[in-house]
Write a structure and sequence with these properties.
This protein is an alpha+beta fold. Helix content is 28%, strand content 27%. The strands form six sheets. Strands 4, 5, 6, 7, 8, 11, 12, 13, 14, 15 and 16 form an eleven-stranded mixed β-sheet that branches. Its EC number is 6.1.1.20.
């Protein structure tokens, strides 16, 4: 959950009222926010910088409210959006109407996208704010909103990066292109000499803030650039803007460009930026579009600041929230949350107009949530559930827990291993020729070679655990009670979980009698008798061959006529592949038939 810091005096000035700390905390709670801390700039710097006397001495004593904002409410990440939302919530003003105008073809700002950008950041959107006026406080808020968006929806600039430029210092049309880092030079923001792409990387390699973004494009063969018609480089996204077009307090016309790997998020970001700060334009809440011309010649206009309508049922809203309000009152509640609403002709449904500031509303459930916030969570009456149920542990988990203690009392230590493993762990390392012989569920885009498939047996994880603890004194006796995943076309999702017990004994000799004794103990607890006659009732061992086990030292475990697992001494080749030097015996059984 992001936290914003706003100066108390500016906040109260914008709200038109002074509150005590407790009163403002209650207001935040009613609006669905939380006042996290009341502090000062000096105290904040003192916490972050320690005893850096110069920074602390230069800080102000202005009281700052640190407010926790829901992660999906991008419109509340700055003072402008926060105060606008609160004033609408209080009924002091009506929601503004955001407009997007398209200038004549000869006046519109155009950005031509070159095909090379597809190698690094393929998308760009842009907008223009005309006749803007900045104060020192609104300027700082403008910069701070960019930083908050970069950390939040932009995912530290990996998905989207924002560039803002003084439009009067550059000349369109612009191009968005990509060049090798050695083939361009420009003056980065607040620098006084030119650097190549490699030079920029070296310059900011130790920079406190910017070094965390260098990796995004550092290894790319080309770096993205936004360039004007005179060849002036406006920005090197996602690292730094150019010094030539930097924003100042005197800037009147601002070009906002967002380069991205995710077009949807770029559109959200540019919508948020222009909606929050178009209130400082001479023509309030009005933005000028830009034309983005793709390499194939097609063009799109951004931003669109689109409004959309959603029809919800007042009855459903009441049922979901747990209240009994008339459709008229539900409409009033939604209007408080910046969602302009009106009753439909039948008087039962509500047409909700979702503004471009509310990209968090993607489903009727989000609208119902706003109804609950506006109504007040503390005012919702508490009721008993309409159906009575008795909660209890699932049978397979209950059985697993009942077996864990006796196995541990038998001298085994419980382990918890990864559900994902490599293909070799369940195939070639266990003596099989290929993973294709196993009904394993594969991960389509594995991040590492260690997590390629879902395990079909618990044995590899336990052998890896023993290998990582070879310095421990012998014997090493470990067990695990967990699920394996088996591919099964007969199930709805194509796979099923199977709860198993696996135990391994590692010592100077294999100790087959140790795991056999553990198997007998488990079966005694499960009240399954030993059956030497090998009839369907009870359990017995049946000799078999398995490449993971020593020849002649492996058996199937047959219980009530069903094959539930295997027991035996592991093959030396298997031990070698798991980097073990002492012999091991193991038992693995499926416990689901005993539920």
């Amino acid at each position: 959950m992001p936290t914003i810091g706003v100066k108390r005096n500016l906040l109260f000035e914008a709200l038109g009222k002074t509150y005590s700390d407790d009163e403002f905390q209650r207001l935040c709670f009613e609006f669905g926010l939380e006042l996290d801390e009341v502090t000062t700039e000096k105290q904040m710097i003192s916490k972050e910088q320690g005893e850096n006397a110069a920074l602390v001495a230069g800080a102000s004593e202005d009281v700052i409210y640190r407010i926790d904002i829901p992660a999906n409410r991008y419109d509340l990440l700055c003072l402008e959006g926060l105060t606008l939302g609160i004033r609408i919530f209080q009924g002091k003003i009506k929601p503004p109407v955001f407009k997007c105008i398209k200038p004549p073809p000869e006046s519109i700002q155009k950005i031509y996208v070159k095909p090379e950008t597809s190698q690094v950041r393929p998308h760009i959107v842009a907008a223009v704010l005309r006749n803007l006026y900045f104060t020192p406080d609104s300027y700082n808020s403008f910069i701070d909103l960019q930083d908050k968006l970069h950390q939040n929806i932009c995912r530290r600039r990996t998905l989207v990066s924002i560039g803002t430029h003084d439009l009067d210092t550059v000349q369109g049309p612009f191009t968005y292109e990509a060049k090798p880092p050695s083939e361009f030079k420009f003056v980065p923001l607040n620098q006084d000499k030119e650097y190549t792409g490699h030079g920029v990387m070296e310059l900011y390699s130790n920079h406190a803030q910017l070094k965390q973004y260098l990796h995004i494009i550092k290894e790319s063969p080309v770096y993205p650039l936004v360039i004007d018609s005179n060849g002036v480089i406006l920005s090197l996204p996602p690292i730094i803007n150019g010094d030539h077009s930097k924003i100042t307090l005197k800037t009147k016309n601002v070009l906002i460009e967002c380069t991205a790997t995710d077009l949807t998020k770029a559109r959200i970001v540019v919508d948020t930026m222009v909606c929050m700060f178009s209130q400082y334009c001479k023509d309030q809440f009005t933005t000028e579009t830009c034309e983005i011309i793709a390499p194939d010649g097609s063009s799109e206009f951004y931003p669109d600041l689109a409004y959309r309508n959603e029809v919800i049922s007042a009855e459903t809203a009441n049922t979901v929230v747990g209240i009994s309000e008339s459709p008229e009152n539900v409409t009033k509640l939604l209007n408080k949350m910046c969602l302009k609403s009106e009753l439909t002709s039948d008087g039962r449904d509500i047409k909700v107009t979702i503004p471009p500031t509310r990209h968090d509303v993607i489903h009727p459930c989000d609208i119902y949530e706003d109804v609950a916030i506006a109504y007040g969570y503390n005012k919702i009456p508490r009721t008993l559930p309409k159906t009575n149920t008795i909660g209890e542990q699932s049978p397979v988990n209950k059985l697993s827990d009942l077996l864990r203690d006796p196995i541990a009392q038998a001298g085994f230590t419980e382990a918890l291993t990864f559900t994902l493993c490599s293909r070799d762990d369940i195939s070639t390392k266990l003596g099989l020729n290929s993973v294709d012989e196993i009904p394993a569920v594969h991960v389509s885009n594995p991040k590492t070679l260690e997590f390629q498939v879902c395990r079909t047996t618990l044995l590899p994880g336990l052998l890896k655990t023993i290998a990582a603890n070879k310095k421990m004194p012998l014997p090493l006796k470990i067990f695990e009670v967990s699920d394996v995943i088996i591919k099964d076309p007969a199930t709805e999702v194509g796979a099923r979980n199977e709860r198993r017990i696996c135990a391994v004994n590692c010592n100077k000799n294999a100790g087959f009698e140790v795991v056999h004794g553990l198997l007998d103990k488990i079966m005694l607890l499960l009240e399954v008798p030993w059956n030497p006659n090998k009839t369907p009732k009870g359990y017995y061992l049946q000799a078999c061959e398995d490449p993971a086990f020593f020849p002649g030292r492996c058996a199937r475990i047959i219980c009530n006529g069903n094959d539930i697992g295997k027991i035996g001494v592991l093959h030396p080749n298997v031990l070698h592949k798991f980097e073990l030097t002492n012999p091991c015996s193991c038992v693995e059984i499926n416990i689901e038939p005993f539920i």
